[in-house]
Amino acid sequence: MSTPNYPTSGPEGTIPVNEAIDWAQNWRTYITTSGQVFNVESFEIPIIDFKNILLHNPDAESVRAYIGLEDATDPTTAKLMLVPVVDGHDVVVIPTTGNGGDGDGDQSNVYDVTKPCPPTCAPPTSPIRGF
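and the corresponding structure tokens:
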């Protein structure tokens, strides 16, 4: 089975689709093989992710969040990837050319510039932190 030729760029806040696939696979591998407890408490998500999801996906009925790891052996590289959902399906690509896109100008529609806690945490005075 061949790997689809996914786009490598997209609106601000997106990551390449193939990178998202790798991160999600890293997470699944880590969870099944590490024997360690996942220690991320939360993710800080930039507003630009939400703005661009709404701008580029006006028909989306929801957003699916996937957990991933940049490094398959390091839980501190945790990422939360946001993918718009239309008609129950993940929409990982924004067609930008032709009628529905031809693959040449398509863009990634997978969002992530999130920061995990730890190390990027809310102040200890947050009413939710540690809840």
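(Above: one complete record from the training split.) Residues 14-97+105-117 form one domain.
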